[in-house]
Input
Amino acid sequence: MKDFFNSAAQQHHPLRVLKDFLDREQANEVAKKYDEMRFVGYVLDINYNTVTIITSDPYKVAVGGIPRNSLLIMTPAKQERIATPHFTLLRVLDAAPTPLSKETQQTYFELQKKSMPELDIFTQSELQWGALNTEVLGMFYPHPEKQDAVEFSGDMNNFVSAHKYRVYAPDAAILDLVINSLVSQDKRFKIGTLRLTECRLPLPDKPILQVPVYVSPRDFLASRTAMFGKTRLGKSNVVKLIAQSILDATAQHSNVGQLIFDINGEYANDNPQDGSKSLRSANPDRCVVYALTPKAATPSKPLKLNFYEQPDTAQNILASLINQDNRATSDYIRRFMSVELLPLEEIKKMNAGSEKTRTYRKVQVFWAILQKAGFQADEKRLIAIAPSGQPPSGFNPGFSQQLRSAAYSAAGIQTVPQPPRSLDELMREMEIMARFRRDHPSNPNLTTQSGNALFDPDDIALLEFLEPSPGRSGPAIIQPYRIYHHPQASDFVKDILKLLDDGRTVILDLGNAHPVLLEYFSDLLSKAVFSHQVDKFSNDKLGDKYIQLYFEEAHNLFPRQKEPKDIYSRFAKEGAKYHIGIVYSTQSPSTISGDLLAQTENFFVAHMSSQDEVNVLAKMNVAYESMKDDILRAKTPGYIRMLTRSHRFVVPIQALKFEPNTSQPSLL
Output
């Protein structure tokens, strides 16, 4: 009666598959159907970390082979079974010596030396036995508090004598339990299939088991996820799968916004050449693209700056671009690059006086430089945000009438025009002032009433760049950077934060962008997102809202050799508290900040060819120690070694190819 009630209680328990499996094994053994058995062998030696098993060639053949990294299960032998079903999970590491290894090698040597054509049945029986070394991954057993649930521990609570255990190659049902039972059923998605080895050659009449592998979108929220491996091996494909899973899981709630820094344009744009679909085309209603260079086939908003309205940022970017392109070939260019401008909002808040006058005139000279370089402007919009009232204001730099008369007269213009009311007029007046200052440096009109020079060194640097000496390029140097400017560019940061709060996925198409612009947009939006989430946290408005950030070429943002920028360091250390998750990709773990690696919860590792790289990975996460050789050898695209918050051990998978709106996605 007790057995009856125990059996009834376990009827729907996940571990029922273990009982069914062992019952089948016993029935096959009684019926002598050895070819249908999953039995692998016996335990030769056991401790808390490793188990050495003995096996035989027929056993290996019957289960379809036992490649390295195979998953095996160890259960108590029949006579030692206890009422509570459980098993220990093992991973095959390599062949191990047996107590008779030397004698076996001596027999092989003698046989080969005598060139015997075949072995007698007794010798063959002796030679086909061998041993395998395995590591203990942990135990599966019924959850102590939850009915019909499984719990996993990364250790063993006890072990007895080696001869009291049997080892099996699990079937598809048990492998599904091992891989997927700890993954939440809520909104989970299939990321690929279990692939224990790169070789796909099956033994005769022994098909390779097809076991789906699932992950939970919750594993990635407020977590750090790493994508490691050489290029063209499927890292971006896995990122698309993760981003799509979050889109699917939040279709009704819209509580997760995603921001993707797309430096290659592959998430925003389809690639017909290799049949790759973009995330945007798969989700046109939920993805918004901001592009530096718009594509005809991809609807997008301009990801550009308004250089007139953001003079402080624009000046810094121009200086960086000039420096990166090695165009700072003269002192006057370097002096221009060293000038710092204040934001218009700060200037408007300053009290009237000489400091405000000097500060705003610098901006006006900068506007004149932009106008001369061909940067388009919306003058009505510019006037609306510019300081107004007493000159200098608007486009009027507020020079004294005496100075204007002297400067225009020196330029051969006897009739002094009205103060500038447009950018063209401002540009012409600043050009005249630049030439007058250069040609008549001792003119008393270039001195203030207090006896100071009217133009300080920064003014002179700007004026010399606007109207340089003959033979110099001046504003023509910055003409190539007009592609980063748009006169109607809005406050895209505010717009993007609103989209993220609404649960939209924003893709920044930065394909072919200058490295300076890449760094600028990454820094600007990362700081904005962090500040935005901190503000919601402080005001108790965070709730169930999350933001996911996706970075490629992460070694540029989280470098190992020096301290990462403050904002990225805070992502690594504090992001979870503010519901910020990051997914970062790079080819080399050794180039990534140790702090970030230590905090990373999820790993997706493709092929790496450097021993140093896999050593760094294994040092930061010991779960990869036994996978190092496999990572170095296997080069198949999409063959990934995965470790997530739901998976307590590394799971090798063949990732699905991102194929939206397809009922049966293919393997990559």
Q: What stands out?
A: DSSP finds 22 helices and 19 strands in the chain. The longest strand covers residues 129-142.
